[in-house]
Amino acid sequence: MTDLPVVVIGAGPQGLAAAAHLLERGLEPLVLESGDGPAHAVSEWGHVRTFSQWVELVDKAAARLLEPTGWVAPTHGYPTGREWIAGYLAPLAEALGGRVRYNSQVIGVSRKGRDRLVDAARAEQPFTIHVVDSAGVESRLDARAVIDAAGTWTQPNPAGADGLPALGERAAADVISYQVPNFEQAEAFAGKHTVVVGSGHSAATAIIELGRVADTHPGTRVTWALRRGVIGNTFGGGVADELPERGALGTRAKQAVEAGLAEVVTGFRIERIQRTEEGAVLVSEDGRTLPAADNIVVLTGFRPDLSFLSEMRLELDATLQAPIRIAAEVDPNVHSCGSVAATGAKDLAHPEPDLYLVGMKSYGRAPTFLAITGYEQVRSVVAELAGDHEGAARVELVLPDTGVCGGAGLFDDGAGASSGGCCVPAPSVPVWRSLSAVTR
To answer: Does this chain's domain 6-154+302-393 share its CATH topology with 173-298?
Structure first.
């Protein structure tokens, strides 16, 4: 199989970085992207500004690949998703040339001539990748290894508190969005009532954006529905966050609430969405209702799409749907400052040899993924595929503290959930750190 490519699923930050590492190791990559351009998922939150600086968003092997083209790495400021693509990801995809195929959606991965049940000579067979293009034409490709960097963007969690769509959620699809609102499209929210569901960084960003609309367009109303019983650490770690812009994000969301630009409702676990003449009414499990909404923005996280890996032998955590050896490190139920460790090929391996889930998808349903963690993952995985076991085992990453400790706290009363930061303020010296973005 040495003449076959390593297929990388997804042309996002980790997928493109994986391709750069493969080339540097003398292995041939083939990147399959379902969208019509590089980092298609990032383009869909292109208006959102990252809370990492430019120097923290570029993979080292990718930079080495780009340097001979005359590309100059941006060094200052915090890019939006759109700027991240234009200044780095699109040039990287262009440098990879025909090794990146767009409009190529992977619908299945298996072993050639072997379904999931067959043991005989399984590892000796190449992978077969089933692909469908934008015209619906299906094809198959063979691969020596598979790196799944497809992310989780296409699988947003629903509004329903039980992890299933709320009753009526599908029927209300015309008024529901699962993406961060854009102030540049204020007319969609001006003078209307919008309910934001969720408590993470994406929800905080939505509150900031909608708060700007409310501040400049009279009659605009914003309600922030939290499932947790208290506000607790919703606003993050503030100045204690080693990513200053991430800390500032929570501070700005708090300011929007304190200024009366958004109203917070706690302990609201959505059971159903009812359509009325006035709008969409959210009903909680305890029977409470919110005033009729014109728009509902659901930002409750994401989950991995495992459907096209159904013939693969995966070893996933029962709770997070993440590789079992990293699950305890990323579980938001127990996560605290500094507890998330770097993960490499050994941690990401499955019973299916030479198959790796990397990037956001490797964290399953956990929301704590850092882009720089993904870069370290692909560096280690590619080293392993190249036979450099020592390089694969080496850790070349130091992660920042979150500024919020104590795990998720009790689900109802918030006990144990810190309302502030527990970590020291950000040091004055540069620290290599990066997050995928404020939205995932």
So the answer is: yes
Dig out the tokens for 201 from the structure: 């960084």
* Whole-prediction pTM: 0.86
Q: What is the C-alpha to C-alpha distance for residues 177 and 158, in angstroms, rounded to an integer?
A: 10
3-state secondary structure of 30: strand
Q: Which residues contact 129 (CB under 8 A, 6 or more apart)?
A: 7, 32, 106, 108, 109, 140, 141, 142, 143, 146
CATH of domain 173-298: 3.50.50.60
Extended strands (E) in 235-334: 263-265, 270-275, 280-284, 295-298
CATH architecture for residues 6-154+302-393: 3-Layer(bba) Sandwich (3.50)
DSSP run (H or E) holding 392: helix 389-393
Q: What is the DSSP letter of 167?
A: B
Class of residue 187 by CB neighbours under 10 A (exposed 0-12, middle 13-18, buried 19+): exposed
Instruction: Annotate 143-181 with b (16+ C-beta within 10 A) or e (fewer).
Output: bbbbbbbbbbbbbbbbbbbeeebbebbeebeebbbbbbb
pLDDT in tens, 158-199: 999 999 999 999 999 999 999 999 999 999 999 999 999 998
pLDDT tens for each residue of 296-353:
999 999 999 999 999 999 999 999 999 999 988 888 776 543 456 778 999 999 999 9
Ranges of each domain in the chain: 6-154+302-393, 173-298
CB 234 within 8 A of CB 228: yes
